Amino acid sequence: xxxxxxxxxxxxxxxxxxxxxxxxxxxxxxxxxxxxxxxxxxxxxxxxxxxxxxxxxxxxxxxxxxxxxxxxxxxxxxxxxxxxxxxxxxxxxxxxxxxxxxxxxxxxxxxxxxxxxxxxxxxxxxxxxxxxxxxxxxxxxxxxxxxxxxxxxxxxxxxxxxxxxxxxxxxxxxxxxxxxxxxxxxxxxxxxxxxxxxxxxxxxxxxxxxxxxxxxxxxxxxxxxxxxxxxxxxxxxxxxxxxxxxxxxxxxxxxxxxxxxxxx
Amino acid sequence: xxxxxxxxxxxxxxxxxxxxxxxxxxxxxxxxxxxxxxxxxxxxxxxxxxxxxxxxxxxxxxxxxxxxxxxxxxxxxxxxxxxxxxxxxxxxxxxxxxxxxxxxxxxxxxxxxxxxxxxxxxxxxxxxxxxxxxxxxxxxxxxxxxxxxxxxxxxxxxxxxxxxxxxxxxxxxxxxxxxxxxxxxxxxxxxxxxxxxxxxxxxxxxxxxxxxxxxxxxxxxxxxxxxxxxxxxxxxxxxxxxxxxxxxxxxxxxxxxxxxxxxxxxxxxxxxxxxxxxxxxxxxxx
Lengths: 264, 286
Description:
- The structure holds 2 protein chains of 2 kinds.
- Chain A has a 6-stranded mixed sheet, with helices on both faces.
- By secondary structure, chain A is α/β, with parallel strands linked by helices.
- Chain A is globular and about 50 Å long.
- Chain A has 9 helices and 10 strands.
- Chain A has a single domain (57-263), classed as P-loop containing nucleotide triphosphate hydrolases (Rossmann fold, 3-Layer(aba) Sandwich), CATH 3.40.50.300.
- Chain B is mostly helical.
- Chain B has one domain (20-274).
- Helix content of chain B is 72%, strand content 1%.
- Chain A binds chain B through residues 3, 10, 13-14, 16, 76, 79-95, 97, 99-100, 102-106, 108-109, 113, 116-117, 120-124, 128, 131-132, 135, 168-170, 172, and chain B through 1-6, 8-16, 35-36, 38-39, 42-43, 46, 50, 118-125, 191, 280, 283-284.
């Protein structure tokens, strides 16, 4: 049983550099209300402010909100990368985070070396590394490119490699950013199949996306982030009808229905 | 099929304000790095491989360039200092190789977190992997340079004594100190971006005031008393001497050991305390 509890979590980024105290910045800060000061009077950007929710097995949470609303920061915080400044999280289950296509790959190393590195991060041993290498080679269809440095790849190829590397079949808690839904059409068909298997098997899914149809199709709960706070929390239909203009909402609903029909 | 993941216990990630939980997290980070030892090794190995990818001699350029430098400097300076080449060259070879290790550790240590920013922001992992990578990478470089020392010793044989046994604890102390200094400078360098160049210039001064090109015995007969203070108080001298002395057939130097141990304790403590305090902030800084 997986569980993810986020309690009153706040995250703020310090702005250390001298220009952060300039008049322009201060004016901007006052206007947007997103800037704060910490105990030592350093300027900070408050990326998350007292965010609370809890997720259990079976929950499929979607995050929406405008750019800079704190969706990615929230995903990174849930992945344990940024430790909160206030509040706490309890994570019960293995977390798989698909946050960006590069995923800490070293672009100077070859594809195979990067696969090996990834396997070692996860603490795999000799045989498991070999299995992973074969699996990624087959799925990404990169063939001989895997023995070339990643910097020689096209951006589409990097997405393929990143996708193949990151998509464990059985993640318990899956955190995804929307990059995963980008890629060339031919690969996307294949990727989608795998992604759907993964999403289906994940006990908890958290997906950040701007695509309402995907959110409606995959999620059973949505959180609307605004200015680092939870603005609304509810079913996809409720939240999207408030978030989107009416005609876009109808369009998205129709698209999601069509996809559901096709899947059934 | 992918291998199954191990089952995990619930993890609590909280904004830690009390000292005890901070220490516990810092120790857990160190333990995790030890467990990830194969990763640290592979990262270091790939670093060396990348540096020399496509070159004919590969990492043996390290050996060759060190050999050329030591040969050239050795012959010129033995004349300048009126020293016997047979005595000066072994001294210089060991000193320069060891100094190379120290100065690169401080330079690369100071950027160990900021240069791994992508990795740090892509997933949760032990932060101490990064300083450990700097240390292991430079131990690999050191191993390549040892070949030069072996050749010099072959040409100018030294008379070793039992003190040679003290090399083992001395090298162990070096590894611990190298890790501590990378961690310390890495954390400071991640937060204050001016630190890496400052460290560079301090190390440049240290090179001249530390007996590396010159040995203390060269000063004694000139009556340069004040310079001896440079040696007694110099944090690098003790560390250098505990490795260099026995290799040149000198007896165990107790005062150098005391000097090295005292500075090491201070360094390790400072480094650990800073890490305990700053660990959760590193991803925000890089």
